[in-house]
Amino acid sequence: MKPPPRNPSHPPLSSSLETLLGASTGEAGISPNAILLRTEGRGLYLLMILVCLPFLTPVSIPGVSSFSGGIVLLLACRMALGLPPKLPRWMGERQLSAAQQKRFLGASIKVLHWLEKGVKPCAGSWLEWRVVRRINMVLLGSMGFLLALPVPMPFTNTIPAYAIVLLAVSLMEEDGRVVWVGYGLALGTYLYFGLMAGTLAALIHKYFNAWLP
Q: Which of 6, 68, 122, 125 is the most buried (most CB within 10 A)?
């Protein structure tokens, strides 16, 4: 399958956000869905990265992972179905004040500047193939689902969060090298959760065997 033509002058998302922040100085009323629209959908990956940042340390935040994982799952499913990236109205249409907008975009730009130091557009034209895009969205959605699971076990938030961040930043910047690290971590996430499920099943089986005659 021949990939579609790729724009070699693809600007970093941080530049697009800086332009958006400069153009909207003093403007109130921008919403998360408007940001997604104005960044031509690439803000989708930024949002996935931001909601996963709290889980990049082994310390779990009770209750928050279900919300963050749900956002990743929802956005990934919409993209896999060919729908535009959009949050539910109660969340995505909530208008930010000028101060909130400046803080949100300013923090996002700082995160992107740090990520873009190591992730660059390189050998990533195949990431634009339709079938690859859908597979990547399914992969991101599954990582979001695992992040959302309320599993009280070590690293069950951290591992899928790292996989989401690596996949999202690679797809955002079309880096065909770093994305393979994300694939490897996603595979490791499946294996880890499979091991946890097997261990839990064995414990339950042992418990019932001890009580049954």
A: 68
Rounded to whole angstroms, what are the CA distances from 41 to 5, 32, 56, 68, 172?
A: 18, 11, 24, 18, 10
93-117 tens-digit pLDDT: 777 666 766 766 677 777 777 777 7
- Residue 118 is classified by DSSP as T
Which tens digits make up the pLDDT trace of 31-90?
777 777 777 667 788 888 888 887 877 666 667 788 888 889 999 998 898 888 888 887
Taking the C-alpha atoms of residue 122 and residue 124, their distance in angstroms, rounded to an integer, is 5
Residue spans per domain, the chain: 13-211
Q: In the structure encoding, which two tokens stand for residue 45, read together?
A: 């990956």
Q: What pTM, to 2 d.p., does this model score?
A: 0.78
Q: 52: buried, middle or exposed (CB in 10 Å: 19+, 13-18, 0-12)?
A: buried
Query: Among candidates 12, 64, 44, 37, which has minimal Cα distance to 140?
Result: 44
CA distances from 112 to 9, 22, 25, 130 (A): 18, 17, 20, 26
